[in-house]
């Protein structure tokens, strides 16, 4: 058990945590943007934006930690994945630019037309960012062609039915996160509307989860063996069982009109899907050829950042929680904060 | 002038995205500190004018910060998309520094920005002030790490090179506190403060010039206050920046002599060198044409001795020279702006002494014209240091030409066009919103940020002793929803 063996394992866990945090936290932000499609009224949309405005910037920072962390501790993976997924990464960045500035700009625009355009930018930016993230995930799962220490494939290697399915699935998943978040943080007509949306999206997202989960093991014999061979199946079998329980709990939450339960259940769905991805990929970072040990920066680099990360991440979580606590409670146009 | 291939388009993309990006961090670094000062003064004195100014500039900060975030995200991913070979080789050294930037700065800024923008009524003034200070601190910590990274690329230290060509860390303190970092960081922070001082001064001057002065009627006290604060900053920081720039020059002469030679347009090493005020460097003919020179001054400036030796570009192989035609002019542009700023700062001291600072319309006109000058100087300075580092990404060790991802021209060109189109729309809109906010003067009872505020406030958190009336002094119906009711 040398540090060259252990450090990449610890860092893989931390990077996975950062990406997971990003997916859940910015997932509901992007979902709220996607749900602009279901809400035409400017004032109602403002309530939706108000629900996420104080936190979205912090939420997006997990994406920078995911990317920056990859650069810091797995530079080879960063140097291979970014060129391999070039079109989807660039599309995501451009989309996030529109989404990010639209928060401010939609309030600053003084004409009805201007507001309509920045609302459209918020919706399209959120949707395209989610779609591009799904494509990136799908492309990565398919495998990346590597020669030497660099990407060796073409522009569109990642593009096929599976990646497109992943793209649409992530858009639907984020929209569901957004809808359940709004059930939690709003009340009255908006809450009722989002409960209906969450109900419909719940079915859709589950269908996507089932199809992607069944498709993934057939992308790569390693994945297949991991899921259905012994001893992998001992680890993988509980995942669908847990998932089934959470699905039931989600629907109970919706039917009994709980405020927070549906959101927590969907977050748990995402965590489980993410765990499933981890089971498939481990210990590869860039399937099928680069493992976490091959991609790792030297132990001195990983150790140097790890010391800081172990101290700072708990502090970050603490003040992020504080910020969420400050802005707790329902938001609404006609009501004051509680 | 340059061939159109993937390499040059990727470089153009980096230059384009960096030039747009750098303006906003410079703005955020300076403005966050200014906001912390304003709020601190409000809490200390209880004077509502500081709260009005705080709220006025906070709305502007909010837009500028957002544009810095989105354009910065592009920068952090561009290392991988376009410069993968560089990321792979230099990642073990500079990656952890950027990781620390995210962990110590980005989260701090983002975590407390929400409280700073929307949380005054929820957490009360004292905790709110703490949030403002933490955001300001975050901008400075961020500058520290990223300038350490850039400085390491200019003056690499504390590394070894592995058998596979990767840079491996050997001594983290030597890496972080590399030779050019200690001058680059204060130079950039001062530049940020100076840039913001000139923006604040320009906005104040614009409103002072527009104000109708009626006898016995007091002028807008908030405008006067920020004008005075800005002119103090100009008078103190601009001369300090010239001294800092001089120290930076000495440092560059010592560690990057080719860059200095290109900046000066000097081709032959010489003692007792003249200073070329103007000329046109010709990289092909290895000469600087149409020179206007001042004798002795070149050596004096660079070595602080009349007979000191200064380097010439011919000392370096053609393939190792930075482009003198670019850095010669960008450097002179930055210097000219710097001296103009210092001159205005000293002028303001003179007018203050004569007690006519608030009446002299010429200095106000000069300030309006010079409003964006700080940002222009920042851009020109970065062009000088980055083009001057060429043809290397890691100075003297890794060539820019060997740093690219295996990405072809179609991809890089398409993404560059995408960035140009998106930045044109987003930054044009953002700057127009900023100018719009600046075109209104701060008013007594300046409203807070419209976003995220309850549209009908119920209770108000009491302020500090004597300051409570100002806290709730704004029209609670202000905002998006209120406007439509």
Describe this structure in words.
Chain A is an all-alpha fold. Chain A has one domain (about 5-205, about 280-325). Chain A is about 80% helix and about 5% strand. Chain A contains 14 helices and 4 strands. Chain A has a two-stranded antiparallel sheet with strand order 1-2. A two-stranded antiparallel ribbon of chain A has the order 3-4. In chain A, strand 1 and strand 2 form a beta hairpin. In chain A, helix 1 (about 5-35) runs antiparallel to helix 6, helix 3 (about 55-75) crosses helix 4 (about 75-85) and helix 7 runs antiparallel to helix 12. Chain A is globular. Mean pLDDT of chain A is about 90; it is low at about 335-338. With about 475 residues, chain B is mainly α. Chain B has one domain (about 10-250, about 325-430). Chain B is built from 15 helices and 8 strands. Chain B has helices at about 5-45, 50-80, 85-120, 120-155, 170-175, 180-210, 220-255, 255-265, 295-305, 325-355, 360-370, 375-390, 410-440, 470, 480-485, and strands at about 160, 165-170, 270, 275-280, 285-295, 310, 390-395, 400. In chain B, the strands form 4 sheets. A two-stranded antiparallel sheet of chain B has the order 1-2. Chain B has a two-stranded antiparallel sheet with strand order 3-6. In chain B, a hairpin with a 5-residue loop joins strand 1 and strand 2. In chain B, helix 1 (about 5-45) packs across helix 12. Chain B is globular, with a radius of gyration of 24 Å. Chains A and B meet through helix 2, helix 3, helix 4, helix 5 and strand 2 of A and helix 2, helix 3, helix 13 and helix 15 of B.
């Amino acid at each position: 058990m040398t540090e060259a063996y252990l450090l990449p394992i610890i860092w893989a866990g931390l990077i996975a945590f950062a990406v997971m945090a990003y997916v859940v936290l910015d997932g509901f932000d992007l979902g709220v943007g996607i749900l602009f499609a279901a809400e035409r009224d400017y004032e109602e949309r403002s309530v939706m934006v108000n629900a996420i405005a104080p936190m979205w910037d912090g939420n997006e920072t997990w994406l920078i930690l995911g990317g920056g962390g990859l650069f810091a501790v797995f530079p080879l993976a960063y140097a291979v994945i970014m060129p391999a997924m070039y079109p989807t990464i660039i599309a995501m960045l451009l989309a996030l630019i529109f989404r990010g500035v639209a928060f401010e700009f939609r309030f600053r625009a003084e004409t009805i037309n201007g507001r309509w355009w920045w609302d459209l930018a918020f919706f399209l930016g959120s949707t395209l960012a989610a779609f591009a993230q799904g494509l990136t995930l799908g492309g990565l799962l398919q495998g990346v062609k590597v020669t030497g220490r660099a990407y060796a494939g073409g522009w569109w290697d990642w593009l096929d039915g599976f990646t497109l399915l992943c793209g649409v699935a992530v858009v639907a998943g984020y929209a569901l996160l957004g809808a359940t978040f709004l059930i939690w943080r709003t009340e009255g007509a908006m809450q009722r509307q989002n409960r209906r949306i969450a109900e419909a999206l719940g079915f859709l997202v589950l269908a996507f989860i089932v199809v992607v989960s069944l498709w993934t093991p057939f992308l790569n014999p390693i994945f297949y063996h991991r899921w259905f061979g012994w001893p992998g199946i001992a680890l993988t079998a509980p995942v669908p069982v847990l998932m089934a329980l959470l699905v039931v709990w989600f629907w109970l939450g919706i039917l009994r009109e709980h405020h927070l339960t549906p959101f927590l259940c969907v977050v748990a769905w995402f965590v489980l899907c993410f765990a499933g991805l981890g089971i498939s990929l481990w210990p590869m970072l860039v399937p099928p050829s680069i493992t976490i040990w091959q991609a790792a920066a030297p132990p001195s680099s990983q150790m140097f950042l790890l010391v800081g990360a172990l101290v700072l991440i708990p502090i970050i979580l603490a003040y992020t929680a504080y910020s969420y606590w400050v802005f707790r409670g329902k938001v609404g146009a006609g009501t004051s904060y509680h | 002038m340059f061939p159109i291939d993937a390499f040059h388009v990727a470089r153009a993309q980096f230059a384009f995205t960096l030039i747009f990006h750098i303006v906003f961090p410079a703005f955020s670094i300076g403005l966050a500190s200014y906001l912390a000062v304003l709020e601190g003064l409000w809490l200390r004195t209880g004077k509502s004018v500081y709260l009005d100014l705080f709220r006025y500039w906070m709305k502007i900060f909010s837009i500028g910060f957002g544009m810095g975030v989105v354009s910065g995200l592009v920068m952090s991913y561009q290392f991988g998309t376009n410069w993968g070979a560089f990321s792979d080789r230099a990642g073990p050294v500079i990656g952890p520094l950027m990781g620390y930037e995210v962990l110590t700065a980005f989260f701090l800024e983002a975590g407390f920005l929400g409280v700073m923008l929307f949380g005054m009524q929820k957490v009360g003034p004292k905790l709110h002030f703490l949030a403002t200070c933490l955001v300001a601190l975050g901008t400075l910590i961020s500058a520290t790490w990223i300038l350490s990274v850039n400085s390491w690329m200019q003056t690499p230290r504390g590394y070894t090179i592995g058998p596979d060509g990767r840079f491996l860390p050997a001594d983290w303190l030597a890496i972080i506190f590399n030779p050019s970092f200690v001058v680059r960081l204060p130079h950039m922070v001062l530049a940020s403060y100076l840039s913001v001082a000139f923006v604040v001064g320009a906005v104040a001057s614009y409103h002072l010039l527009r104000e109708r002065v009626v006898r016995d009627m007091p002028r807008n006290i908030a405008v006067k206050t920020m004008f005075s604060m800005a002119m103090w900053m100009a008078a103190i920081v601009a001369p300090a920046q010239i001294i800092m720039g001089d120290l930076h020059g000495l440092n560059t002469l010592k560690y990057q002599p080719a860059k200095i030679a290109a900046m000066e347009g000097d081709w032959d090493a010489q003692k007792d060198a003249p200073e070329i005020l103007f000329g046109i460097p010709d990289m092909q003919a290895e000469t600087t044409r149409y020179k206007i020179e001042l004798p002795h001054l070149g050596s004096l400036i660079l070595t602080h001795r009349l007979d000191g030796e200064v380097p010439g570009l011919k000392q370096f192989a053609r393939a190792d020279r930075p482009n003198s035609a670019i850095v010669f002019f960008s450097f002179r542009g930055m210097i000219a702006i710097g001296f103009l700023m210092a001159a205005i700062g000293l002028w303001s001291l003179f007018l203050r002494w004569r007690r006519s600072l608030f009446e002299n319309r010429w200095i106000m006109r000069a300030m309006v014209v010079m409003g964006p000058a700080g940002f222009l100087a920042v851009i020109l300075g970065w062009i000088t240091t980055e083009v001057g580092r060429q043809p290397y990404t890691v100075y003297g060790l890794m060539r820019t030409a060997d740093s690219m991802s295996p990405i072809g021209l179609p991809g890089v060109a398409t993404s560059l066009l995408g960035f140009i189109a998106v930045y044109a729309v987003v930054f044009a809109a953002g700057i127009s919103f900023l100018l719009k906010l600046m075109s209104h003067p701060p008013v007594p009872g300046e409203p807070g940020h419209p976003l995220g505020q309850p549209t009908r406030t119920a209770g108000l958190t009491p302020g500090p002793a004597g300051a409570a009336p100002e806290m709730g002094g704004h029209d609670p119906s202000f905002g998006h929803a209120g406007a439509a009711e």
